[in-house]
Amino acid sequence: MKLHKSRTDRWIGGVCGGLAESLGIDAIWIRLLFVFGGGVLFWVYLALLIFLQD
After folding, report:
1. Which residues, in sequence order, are CB contacts of 3 under 8 Å at separation 6+?
2. What number of CA atoms fall less than 13 Å from residue 10's CA on the CB side?
3. What would the pLDDT profile of 1-54 be if each residue is shown by its tens digit?
């Protein structure tokens, strides 16, 4: 499984869309996880935004 940012399913940076494509699930579930997951997942999202390739 290769993690990447989505070029088509993006709201902010494509992180959630890319994770959803890699996992084979709908992106809304990943987005909800990041929104309601708490402060730690905010930092995880920022790290993924910086380090993942398009």
Report:
1. 18, 19, 22, 48, 52
2. 12
3. 788 898 888 888 899 999 999 999 999 999 999 889 888 998 998 999 999 887
Q: What angle do CA 26, 15, 31 make, to 5 degrees?
A: 45
Measured at the alpha carbon of residue 51, what is the angle toward residues 36 and 31, in degrees to the nearest 5?
20
- Three-state SS at 16: helix
Distance CA 37, CA 54 (A): 24
pTM for the model: 0.82
In angstroms, rounded to a whole number, what is the distance separating the alpha carbons of residues 43 and 49?
10
What span, in angstroms and rounded, lies between the C-alpha atoms of 13 and 47?
12
